[in-house]
Fold this protein.
Amino acid sequence: MSKASIPILLFISLSLVLSACAGGGGSGGYSDNEDERIIVLGFSQLGDESEWRTASTNDIKRAAASAGVQLMFDNAQQQQFNQIKAIRSFILKGVDVIAFCPIVEEGWDNVLEEARAANIPVIVVDREIKTERDDLYTAFIGSDFHREGVKAGEWMVERFADVEGPVRIAEISGTPDSSPTIGRYYGLREVLADNEKFEIVISVSGDFMRSKGRECMEQILLETPDIDILFAHNDDMALGAIEIMEEHGIIPGQDIVIVSVDAQPSGIEALIQGKINCLIECSPYVGDDLMALVFKIVYGLPFPENTFTETRVFTDQDDISTLPTRPGYRP
Ligand code: GZL
């Protein structure tokens, strides 16, 4: 398991040195200079549901341009069917490598069998998948979602150590059947299982979207008004919930403690304002590491089968100056 940290210079030099001996299953592309081969990457992005997703897309496009990789990009608008269609089109076009952010865990075996039959390697990015055979994709690069849920639970236990209880938790979860939702859901429960004072009194799905975060918070206030903690599976849903809290005269971060996942710029801003109390980082910035993987796979070099991003925790007790800057974000 390697950390996502391959410097971009590594594979630019790699591509310059190895440009004449590329392998790979696709026909790829060619530059003006006959012996210089341009690698073609087909990328299926699941949608544009959140700030995290936008950051993911922008980072992939930036990294491909920096690395001289020709990117065929498709936005599936949160439909698995569109992702499968896009992957099939990449196969027909004979790309060198296919990469995709799978919206849900299951339903990929057939199209991955087709890519395998076409001898086109597939990299799973961001979310994980479940397949009948474990050789249907070549590598994974993304985050450990179970660990994110565990970190959220550990922070809650620490923050409420001096509170007798019951501590009532409301959860706004992400896209059903997606690996981040499943991991965060069970990671939290694994930590709280042995701590009787914590009670998850309601869990509703907000599909990682700010608008649905609003709807979920309305439902939570209707059905279980006296909660102590809101655990949102991403910043967008947390921010939607905060809007509703404020419309109801509830002070977010004080009347209700808020824990969110992602730590994108808007989430960090809310942390600075004291509206969110704890952010569990989930980094979308894997573009450079993805391109390094693509080069290594195409040129037949050793590569890590699984690469996980770092999971840091930022809280309302942190020194603001230590909070991470993000592309385009300055505290
Ligand atoms: C996590 C990613 C999730 C983010 C959400 O890797 O798949 O999807 O946590 C995004 O913000 O919508």
In short: Residues 18 and 299 are 7 Å apart (CA to CA).
